[in-house]
Design a protein that fits this description.
alpha/beta, TIM Barrel, 4-stranded parallel β-sheet, flat
Amino acid sequence: VPMVETAKQARQLVQAMNYPPQGIRGVGAALARASHHNRIPDYLQTANEQVCLLVQIEAQRGLDNLTEILTVDGIDGVFIGPADLAADMGYLGQPTAEPVQQAVCAAIEQIVAAGKAAGILMAVPELVQQYLTLGATFVAVGTDVTSFVKATDSLVAQYKNTAVSESESGVY
């Protein structure tokens, strides 16, 4: 869940994600898609044990409250959003700026020390390796849209100077 900045918000998310009596999640919808349209007989009794809640820290306020957020029972991990964090720290468009990276690394160490999963999105290979060395559980090294754009650009470049004759102008 993006933009979590306080332990109170984290507790509210835990409540919203879990079914009664541990939480306040509505049970009516549980009998639809989540339970495979009521094909899982004990769904409501077991669902709370099968969920994973990852909160996303994307602002200095979230980092300032990280110690408290990590104590919230039901938070399974913390994902750091380096682009928004950099912007919030005054480094718009510079998620690799040294002060941002110091904050990110300190946060990863703190998350790991608390026994929670630590995650981040980063495409710079050296930083990816640094995060993994610090104990990050998962590092997203790209996005679907970026991968799609790169593949499309490569495909366009491959055929850019190739003329298509009328006999080759099929549908696909």
